[in-house]
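Reproducibility note. Readers wishing to regenerate the assembly model reported in the main text can use the exact inputs given here. Chain order matters: entities are listed in the order in which they were concatenated for prediction.
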Amino acid sequence: MRRCLELARQAEGRTAPNPMVGCVIVSDAGETLAEGFHRAAGQDHAEVDALRKLPDRRAPGATMVVNLEPCNHHGRTPPCTDAVLRSGVRRVIVGMVDPNPIVAGMGLDRLRAAGVEVVLGVEEAACRALNAPYLLALSERRPLVTVKAAVSLDGRVADAFGRSQWITGEAARLEGHRLRDRHDAVMVGSGTLFADDPSLNTRIEGGRDALPVIVDTQLRVTPEARVMRAGRRPVVLCAQDAPDRALPADVVRVPRAEGGVDLGAGLRALAARGVHSVLVEGGAGLNRALLSAGLVDRLCLFVAPKVLAGGLGFVGGAPIPLAEAYRLRHVDARPVGEDLLIVLERA
Ligand SMILES: NC(=O)c1ccc[n+]([C@@H]2O[C@H](COP(=O)([O-])OP(=O)(O)OC[C@H]3O[C@@H](n4cnc5c(N)ncnc54)[C@H](OP(=O)(O)O)[C@@H]3O)[C@@H](O)[C@H]2O)c1
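Running the prediction on these inputs yields the following structure tokens for the assembly.
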């Protein structure tokens, strides 16, 4: 199952609206006969990708391991249960049930009814963690939100003189591009858009661009902004009553809320477009609004060994008393070049 998760993760950021799935087929002697994973929506599911590598797609008497329940419905591809049953595997080991209402246990029922032994719940916590964005999109109809910021040791994203470029080093910037590569969308507020004119594309070998999303209440962004020309056609979230503007972008109008647009509604609109994970790259105003709306699931903080004693913090707005502080919990910390990456999750 751990190998399945490794295989599945290779497609991180490429499978939405589908989950990430890996599959390993093993003989009774414990020998790996075939491996596969789901590469992108519309392409083979993991089970079929693995079975394809076997003569006649058959593995009589073998065991199939897969991190998510095989589907039993016709989508863009035929039901995986058909292929599993045709293959002659004797046993299927599954990490977790697929809560998608069009699957939800029916795949496992079909296998059991056909006499296949089903073992459910192996490494279930790790399987759930891998597909956290998919599971959240199903349960709350919004994407998983990760806020990323590059800060000084005293939590500043820009010095008091307005210079915010290159707080962290080369390795951290590379890691930032890896994060873009593995998220469905990358989001910034209008403040960051006008201050930095970012292109928001992914500049690493083999990388792919996330969908750029700009939060711009009044639709002030112009076609000249770099993000409009850098790669994928962006989405601009603006207020329902924002003026019309011709842009090479998809304009999504959502209700207003304190501070600008209703971010919950904006995120739900993104989920409806198949976006399951959003990397928020600032700035301080957008980060604060997402925190106060309870919409931050993860925080990736790249901390540079530099002290600025002033400047813009990564969370803006009025100071918060200690008793009311937003609480997160540390899940990981590791050096990235000369900087430190701290990963936190909702407490
Ligand atoms: N070092 C880093 O990691 C990093 C990363 C990003 C940014 N930065 C720096 O951060 C600074 C920009 O921060 P910022 O706070 O000015 O801008 P921001 O957070 O990027 O954008 C804030 C703007 O977003 C719009 N908005 C729309 N709906 C909102 C809502 N519900 N809540 C809050 N804002 C909403 C508002 O403007 P409208 O209503 O007019 O649209 C608001 O003024 C720049 O100096 C940039 O260089 C640093």
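We highlight two features of this model. The chain has a mean pLDDT of 94. The radius of gyration is 22 Å.
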